[in-house]
Each structure stands twice: as C-alpha cells, then as structure tokens.
C-alpha cells in the first residue's frame, strides 16, 4: 500500500511523545477482577473506561490506547463473546474518540491489538490463515470507527507479530507501532534477540518498533539499546515498561516502581534516542504525570506549543482556568461571589429584542448599568412570546456593556438533548448565572399551536446543571471538566397552593439550587408568611433569597395582572389605592415599590426588579436602593455602597 504523510509520524519526528499507562491495573484498582473480560466493559461500563482515559490525558498522555488489547475472537471465546469482536472494538474506539472530544486536547488515538492468546501452529491449533482472519476482523472494526494509528503490543512470538503486521499493512497506510515482550536474557519467547526482532518488525511494515511489558525500566533499557545499536537505517524506538516485577500482597498484585523512578528512567530513555515512552502493567496516571514533567524539560518547545494552542482558544472565549487533580475550575461568577459574601445585590429584568436589531436593547442595558444595578436578568420567551434567544442577548450585553447577566432558562422549548447543548454553549461563552423556571405554556403566546416539550421540569433541569457542575452529563457519564454554573430557582409566595410550592422549592434546593428569585411580591406579610411556612417545615432557608419587585404604574395594569396573569396576586388594598390615585398611579406605583423595598430589605439578600421595559422606573428604584438601603459601609472590604446581611436573619 502506498504510504501517505501521517500527522502522527510528523509529530514524532519533531520530538518525543508520551503514551498512556496500564488499563488493566486501573480497572483492577477499581474493583474489576482479573477474571473479568476487561474489553467487554466498553459495552457494559463505558463511563469507567472513559474516566481512566481522561485521567491519563489529565496526567499528560499524548497517545491514548483503545481498551481492545484482548478483543479478538480467540480471547473473547473464553467469555462466550466471540461473536462481539466488531462491536467491542468499535465501542472501544468510540469511547476514545469521545474522550478526545471532551478533553479538547490534541492527542492521538491508538487502536490497541494484542496477541491472540493461543499459540500458532505447529505449537498450537491456530493456523496462519486463521490468525490473519482474526487480526483482520479486529483491525477493520478499529479502522472503521476511526483511529490515528495501530499499536500492537505484548507479542512474544515474532511470527505471530509478523502476521498481524502483514494484515494491517495491507489494510491501511496508518502508522503502526509494534512492541514485543522480552525476557531478562534479551530475547522473545520464540527465540529471536532484540536486534533481529527490530530488523524483522521494520521489514514487515512497522513504523515504530520497541518493547513493552514483562520488564521494568532498567532491563528494558538494555533491550532498546540492542535494538538500535547496529542498524544501518536509524529506527524509531518505543518503550512501555512495567512498574517492576509484581509481588502478591494478599489477593492483590502490587508493583513497586514509583513515579519518581519512572521519571528518572524516562530521562535515560530519551537521552538514548527513544521517541515514544509510556507505561505497561502496574503504571498509573501518577507514573505518566511524572514522565510528562521529564518530557517538558527535555523538549520544552513541543509541549509548550500544544498548551499554548489550547490556551489561545480558551482566551478567545474568556475562560479562566486553574486545575486540580480531576478537572478545570473557573472562578465563581460575580453573582455567586456576592451571594457567598452575604452582600445585598440588585438585578433588573430585561426582555430580549423581538428582531435581529439590538441597538436599543444595548442602550437600555447601558442605562441599567449606569443606574448602579449589579446584574441584568434576561427572560426566556416570557409569556411564550418569541424573542431573540436570551443566551445570545446576554452575550451581547456582557460583551458590549460589561455587566454580568442572569439568564432565565426553561425546559418548555427544548428537549433533553437541546437543554444540555444550550447550557454547555452558554457556559462556553461565559454565561453562567442561570435562573431555572418552568416556563409559560405555548397556548398563551404567539404560537398557540406550538408544542411544549418539558422532557424535564425545572427541578430536573436544576439537577442536570448540578451534575454538570460535578463533571457529569444528565445520564451520569463523566465529562472532561466540571462546569461552574451559579444555579437559581424560582419561588412563588402568592401561589394558589403554598404547600406544593414550598415542597417544590425544597426539591429544587435538594437538587442543587444555589439561590432563589421570587415571583413579584406586593406586600411584606405574604413574603414573611411564605418564609415562615418554609422554616416550619424544613428549617431555616439554606440559600439566599432575592425578592421580586414589580413597580406598577396604573390601576388598569394592576387589575390585568391580578385577574389574567397566573401566579400574580395583587392585594385588594394596593389595587384600591391605585384606583383612587387615578392619573397619579405611576407615582404611587413607585412609592409602593419603595415601601416594599424598605420593609423587606432586612429580610432578603437582594431584590429583583421587573420594570416591564420602563427602565426609567428601574433606574429610579436602583438609585433609591443605593441611597436608602445600601448606605452602610461593609466592615470587611470597605465598599461604600454595600451592606452585609445579618447571618442570623
């Protein structure tokens, strides 16, 4: 087959690469016994395999081997799985591809193939033709699913390795790494020494040759020196030693070679010309991480270039990362920080524009920012009326105005796939404050024949976001990194059935809600009664509460809200006062809002103003709050316009 240029070989020519470590060792450490079929886990527990791949990538591995070492018909027959060869191999390659996509790391995927597990004739019952058929079946499945190279390892019979090489080289021009297992005497089980093995592997089509398994780093060093010592044409050498020889401790096999020892050995291998290093039995992510440090020091320009490429992408979307052992963590949002510090916050609601034009929308956002508000809430097709996507609208505000947003998010318009897709996209563009709401039924909006979806309700959607914050998707599958959403939920102190609303509020808190924003409240007693009933049933409210304030401007508006909008209850006394005010209803509405703010400010951690596009009213109220409520200077940080909330409240 005509060879073509390979990104893997080009990268390897530029400098050494780091492969991953043992899969079996990690599975055994997680409670999978050695008598199990490790490769079947690709089908029965793909998340476990994925998590191990991700740990190796986090440790610095640049090549990930598919969990398909023993996924050939002869090894699988021992578990009654001989008819699942293609299925298991395809699943193994698919998992590895998903891991690469999740990690956003420029790694290579190696289709891993091991020996058949039974001798070839004349010593055994497998003919050369049968061996070729078995290798072809496995290689085709891996190739169809998509790998960057093939890695053949732990072969001890040179003839069997040559059969495998012949099959794969006739099938594809992808690079092949061929590793054989040597004894302490420097020969393979079929009798050939390291020099002859290297010559034959190269002649049979291998691009990279070397040794793995059986030996620790010290003994393997002698093997690779022999391999490369007297070749006319320089060879590309790979090594993947065991972590020493195993010893039995109770019911477990333990390997003694430490990560530090592997790091020192890696330095020695690199200086001898080895271009690909990794680990075999007994090695873990800690061993790989130790070797990664050596590679960075040995060829600092190569790992640095890869890291810089990723960092440039992250910078373009304003992602700020630090890392721990398992995931990248973003700093908390401004909202999360202020709530955690028990500071009083002010947010103002805006609806996105109805068309693609957004100039006026941004002007109004600028007005809100200049008034002194901390945040802007962006509704999600409120009242089931179609507007610009609120994630896009929030991004426009944060990009052009520079004030942090809180995005309302409903499962009404999105199925379970779209929900996750949209919130992940929001996070990627630094929209991380979410207020999860059920959403108004479509029958009340612009398109009454549209179908509401609601695959999950607001409680279920909060649970999904909480899982993302734990590094899991909705099915509990591990993701490459944890998200950092600040998750809000809604409460309705004027609900028809208060007990049900309080019960649902508790469920939202249990599923991971971090703050509460109420529906509009128009009298203090209603809000106090709601909080008191919660406290009696579940104990002290454990997360911050921001009270919804909606300034009214006329008796007609108050009557409409009270009579026609589900969930809004405006007391008779307030509606009477507005009716009596007549044309002065707007001024009275502002006065009523001020009264409500004065009364509830000591009881809540913020207010959420809903001016219904009358942003001059919002600005007036924000200024009032700044003047009358937030006069006290914070004792902790000296901010002149904030007060701390009494922890006893």
UniProtKB/TrEMBL annotation:
The keyword Zinc applies. GO terms for molecular function: metal ion binding; methionine synthase activity; methylenetetrahydrofolate reductase [NAD(P)H] activity. CDD domains: MTHFR. Its cofactor is Zn(2+); FAD. Keywords: FAD, Flavoprotein, Metal-binding, Methyltransferase, Oxidoreductase, Transferase, Zinc. One of its GO terms (cellular component) is cytosol. GO terms for biological process: methylation; tetrahydrofolate interconversion. InterPro entries: FAD-linked_oxidoreductase-like, HCY_dom, HCY_dom_sf, Mehydrof_redctse-like, Met_Synthase/Corrinoid. Residues 5-295 form the Hcy-binding domain. The keyword Manganese does not apply. Gene3D superfamilies: 3.20.20.220, Homocysteine-binding-like domain. Pathway: One-carbon metabolism; tetrahydrofolate interconversion. It comes from the Bacteria. Zn(2+) binds at residues 213, 280-281. NCBIfam families: PRK08645.1. This is Bifunctional homocysteine S-methyltransferase/methylenetetrahydrofolate reductase. It comes from Tengunoibacter tsumagoiensis. The gene is metF-2_2.
